[in-house]
Amino acid sequence: MKTNNFLEKLEKEASLQAKLSTTRIFPSQLDALTSFIGRYPWQFVLVVSGMTAFAIELLRSSVGGGGL
Prior knowledge:
The protein has 68 residues and is an all-alpha fold. It has one domain. It has helices at residues 2-22, 31-39, 41-63. Helix 2 (31-39) crosses helix 3. It starts with a helix and ends in a 5-residue tail after the last helix.
């Protein structure tokens, strides 16, 4: 009984994985960007966080709250 239940769950999971591998989340035009993010995730996070911090500081100084 347990083996049957396990095999049914395994079959459902396999069909879900097959469906996920055939459908694209992003268009093919973004393949270079997504593969870069996949190869260098921490570097990407570092650059994005730096750009976000820089943008926040620019917004703060343009609003007038530029002091420490």
